[in-house]
Design brief:
It is a single chain. With 170 residues, this protein is an all-alpha fold. It has a domain at 47-154. It has helices at residues 2-6, 9-20, 27-43, 53-58, 69-92, 95-120, 132-153; strands spanning 46-48, 51-52. A hairpin with a 2-residue loop joins strand 1 and strand 2. Helix 3 runs antiparallel to helix 7 and helix 6 packs antiparallel against helix 7. The two termini are 32 Å apart.
Length: 170
């Protein structure tokens, strides 16, 4: 009997490794999906009173609109981690993508604060105020960080694959 099951040992190990690398977002998955949709809509709207998001991303070194560097970084991070990585993490349900989405959302939240502060305090003759869309994006990134955090922290240490022992390799 054990000889019959030993033939399937590699298959069992492969399936166990695949399942251990996945997560179940539960209710938080819906909240994160709504956040991705809201973030996508907000990225299509103006970020400041003089610049749209594609202007902010497209003219990084241009002087077409008075936009501070933290706003450019915030819009880039929100697009990459808030939309792309979060969508991939929800679709593929992989721990590594979820961790990357959580860390990127947290970093984007920080740069959202800096972006709001820099746009509000910018000294220039041109219009530069942050819009409601930028403020909603910033709040959505904070919510996404708070939703990804429990998902990432729910992984127990036993779910991690064991590291190879250096003496066994010899």
């Amino acid at each position: 009997m054990s000889a019959d099951l030993s033939a399937y040992r590699n298959d069992f190990a492969r399936i166990e490794k695949k399942i251990a690398g996945e997560f179940d977002p539960g209710r938080r998955g819906r909240a994160l999906a709504v956040c991705v949709v809201v973030l996508t809509v907000c990225l299509l709207l103006p970020q400041s009173s003089a610049a749209w998001s594609w202007t902010v991303l497209g003219s990084w070194f241009g002087t077409a609109a008075p936009v501070a560097v933290p706003l450019r970084i915030f819009v880039g991070l929100a697009l990459v981690f808030g939309v792309v990585v979060s969508t991939l993490a929800l679709w593929l349900r992989r721990w590594k993508l979820a961790s990357l989405a959580m860390l990127g959302s947290g970093l984007s939240s920080f740069f959202g604060l800096l972006a709001y502060w820099s746009q509000s305090g910018m000294v220039t003759d041109a219009p530069h105020r942050p819009t409601a869309a930028m403020i909603v994006e910033w709040l959505v990134m904070i919510v996404m960080t708070s939703q990804w955090l429990p998902i990432v922290l729910s992984r127990s240490p036993t779910d991690l694959s064991p590291r190879p022992h250096p003496m066994r390799a010899l």
